[in-house]
Design goal:
single chain; 293 residues; alpha/beta; OB fold (Dihydrolipoamide Acetyltransferase, E2P); Rossmann fold; Ribonucleotide Reductase Protein R1, domain 1; 3 domains; five-stranded mixed beta barrel; 10 helices; 14 strands
Amino acid sequence: MEIKDYSGLIIENAGGAYTVETAHGLISCKARGIFRKDGISPCAGDRCCVEGDVITSIAPRKNELIRPPLANIDVIFFVVSTCEPSPNLTLLDKFIAVCEYKEISPVICVTKTDLQDPGNIPDIYGRIGIPVIICKYDDPGECVGKIREICRGKICAFTGNTGVGKSTLLNAVAPELSLKTGEISRKLGRGRHTTRVSRLFKIDDCYIADTPGFSVFETGQYAVIYKDRLKYCFREFEEYEGKCRFTDCNHIAEKGCAVLEAAEKGDIAPSRLASYGEMFKEAQNIKEWETGR
């Protein structure tokens, strides 16, 4: 059996021209034509085999994102501001569910805490085990230290709505960029003239990718989550698994539902349950035959 050497890491895809990090440095590569025939599009984050200047094989991915095209993401940092714009917890919950579905660790960074208190965000998400980092721009050291610690040895992405301070935060985390905040997204592969570029930016022993803001894409571009899988994407439901009256309980309006009873007792945040309910209704409209299930 042939043992393939997947030691290469694609760190940039610029319209089919690839930059691969290898033990011998960075190599400009092209991909074998068979990838297109097999419906595979190599992207940043892919582990690969390289022969000369040709990518010959792609390792199986643990996950992938469609926009921007990224693979094998370990952590997504969701940057949410306390105000201007105000946090949209429903939208945040949808993306956290996608992370759970794709086995990506979610982390929440709350900005503009000097303008307004973060409210119940730390409690809602902290008590279910999602790290919440409070970012103070007048004292960024502690925040940056926590983010860098989480990033260590991982492939990470940052996302957030326009105006939440994502670029400012990235600039604090990665001063190596040496750019004005308005230029950071272009450096990481976004902008009017770089829509075909996906790129990982290496910082110490981690890699960071920028992603479009929440308002730019739909969760369906990240993953299609069917209604029978959705409840497993809300981690606080796990301890009530098997405790409902009905084994096929959807945690919507069924009698004897342990999840709904926990919510009534205050053990599950109302906003999280509401987000789940909205996502369940959306999932009911997914036609499985259209998605190839």
